[in-house]
Write a structure and sequence with these properties.
Layout: E1 7-11, H1 24-36, E2 41-44, H2 56-68, E3 75-80, H3 85-95, E4 102-106, H4 115-127, E5 133-137, H5 147-156, E6 160-165, H6 170-179, E7 186-189, H7 195-200, E8 205-208, H8 215-226, H9 230-247, H10 254-263, H11 282-297
Parallel strand pairs: 1-2, 1-8, 2-3, 3-4, 4-5, 5-6, 6-7, 7-8
Helix pairs in contact: 1-2, 2-3, 5-6, 8-9, 9-11, 10-11
């Protein structure tokens, strides 16, 4: 069995108009920009896309917009970030009239779940669909899937095809690799800072928010790692890590939106969070411009 997703999977940002409505035209243009830069896979309705701020119907419409631009074999993975099984099934039903390729489930937010409860929650949703499914361990959730629980879910459900690991915990990742065959199961890194090392250990790609402003640069990490050129993968990772360190000096997606100006694509704007969450200081802007310019001149 080959990997269903391999290489860079860009986690799409959601652009908004000034009044808070979703800017679907710019969203479509963002997908086109990614495809023009060689990206073949998209992660839709993740936390980077503010899915927690969207209604279920809006998430359906976001997925429909992204999917509509994928006409040449590109794949979409739709995130199901919900609090209850009922809500998850409702969202899957809303997705049903749209062409997409896989679903991705997180643990419920807010309150810790026992292993048994998390198994039941996830199992009910995975069984509800025939689509390939993925588990997303997200540090923003109150509960993380343990290596044993992930392995049990993979054994019990043939359509569970992979795992997006955003724990930033190398020991956890090693424990998962010990329990599940990485040659048939898609291990996708979920943290832009650890793409190269996790792929060197057996991963087949990454779900990356850095791919929004820097698709070519992020894709290079995956391409080099898949080709077995780990030295170049490490060099590409260090470049992304340098930029990421700067972006993280601003709140949430703010600097990621500004960074889009550096690579020439359409610009996502605004947020449904307070407007202060979009502010990037002049110092951060200048630091980012200088770092990116230096990286480009050194090629």
């Amino acid at each position: 069995m080959s990997h269903f997703f391999e290489g860079l999977v860009t986690e799409m940002i959601t652009p908004f108009h000034d009044d808070g409505a979703i800017d679907f035209k710019t969203l479509a243009e963002l997908v086109d920009f990614q495809i023009q830069n060689g990206v073949k896979h998209f992660f839709v309705n993740g936390l980077g896309g503010e899915s927690h701020e969207l209604t279920l119907e809006e998430r359906r419409d976001v997925l429909k917009t992204v999917s509509s631009r994928c006409q040449n074999g590109e794949k979409t993975m739709a995130c199901v970030f919900v609090s209850t099984v009922q809500e998850g099934k409702q969202l899957i039903d809303l997705y049903s009239d749209i062409h997409y390729d896989a679903l991705c489930f997180t643990a419920p937010p807010l309150f810790p779940y026992t292993e048994e409860s998390l198994y039941i929650f996830t199992s009910e949703l995975v069984k509800y669909t025939s689509k390939p499914c993925y588990i997303y361990n997200c540090v923003q959730m109150a509960t993380l899937y343990s290596p044993d629980l992930l392995a049990k879910l993979a054994r019990d459900h043939n359509n569970l095809r992979g795992y997006k690991n955003a724990t930033r915990d190398i020991v956890h990742y090693m424990q998962c690799l010990m329990r599940i065959d990485h040659t048939t199961f898609d291990f996708l890194d979920g943290c832009d800072a650890t793409i190269a090392p996790t792929m060197m250990m057996g991963g087949c790609g990454c779900v990356s928010f850095m791919g929004v402003p820097f698709p070519k640069e992020t894709k290079a990490i995956c391409d080099y790692a898949l080709a077995g050129d780990y030295e170049k993968a490490k060099e590409a990772q260090f470049k992304i890590l340098e930029l990421r360190n700067i972006l993280k000096k601003s709140p949430f997606n703010a600097a990621y939106m500004f960074a889009q100006e550096l690579t020439g694509g359409p610009l996502a704007k605004n947020t449904r969070m307070p407007p202060e969450m979009t502010r990037v200081s002049d110092e951060v802007k200048q630091e980012l411009i200088a770092a990116y310019s230096r990286q480009q001149s050194s090629k």
